């Protein structure tokens, strides 16, 4: 059927405004999954190729005395004339392998893990593109802010875990001696498992403001509730910090607990009371 230019324009407008069916949404979701898996697969291949260099220069870096955080501790000790082992200790860790296939499987798993973490912003972007057409303008702003904040906070937590929390945990646990006749020998599997768990836990812990904000949208928490149980939250945060970093020194506990408590205070600032939200909507 041949339509005049005006008819063609009207036809396109009608078709563009036509609602998508369930199968259309499913097909679009399939395209999103393929794109995400494609980016993740490409990153995994790249990390697999570069893993020998990354393993020596990044993952194994906390095992050497020239790690950036250890240099910072020594500079702090020199500036304030601190002579304790915590600030002046020469630290080296040598890993051993007791499993024949462990290096190969760790090579693969570490590549996959790093590709998943790196692809997180792209995943959030694809999720945003998929759900944004179904949202109202005010919801678009809220979800966009949540995804952006969640991405930034996750990577801040990962960086804090890598540069501070894990090195402190490694120094404490690798030098801790139950008996003088027992020599600590750290296996490759143990090192990698603790490295991934601790860094990932810190990244997830920094999602606290986002989780609290989502709970407030569901009506489960509000600003008054968070303020009322602030002391209880402080105790729970200290307990969580002790679980995340099973070390005995108060410095490591403080390094983890203080950022988590600051995140709790940030959550209070982000959440509104129900009455205030209703007043803002009426305005």
List the helices and strands and how they pair.
Elements: H1 5-17, H2 22-59, H3 68-79, H4 85-88, E1 95-96, H5 102-118, H6 120-131, H7 137-175, E2 186-187, H8 188-205, H9 208-217, H10 223-228, H11 230-244, H12 250-270, H13 274-282
Parallel strand pairs: 1-2
Helix pairs in contact: 2-5, 2-6, 5-8, 6-7, 7-8, 9-12, 11-12
Binned, the helix content reads: over 70%
Q: Give me the strand/helix succession.
A: HHHHEHHHEHHHHHH
| N-to-C CA distance | 51 Å
Helix/strand class: mainly alpha
| Sequence of strands across the biggest β-sheet | 1-2
* Mean pLDDT level: 82
Strand content: under 5%
- The low-pLDDT segments are 1-18
Bulk shape: flat
Number of helices: 13
Largest sheet composition: 2 strands, parallel
Description:
- There is one protein chain.
- This protein is mostly helical and 283 residues long.
- It has a domain at 21-206.
- Helix content is 76%, strand content 1%.
- The protein has 13 helices and two strands.
- It has helices spanning 5-17, 22-59, 68-79, 85-88, 102-118, 120-131, 137-175, 188-205, 208-217, 223-228, 230-244, 250-270, 274-282; strands spanning 95-96, 186-187.
- The longest helix is centred in the middle third of the chain and has 39 residues, at 137-175.
- It is flat, with a radius of gyration of 25 Å.
- The relative contact order is 0.08.
- Residues 1-18 have low confidence and may be disordered.
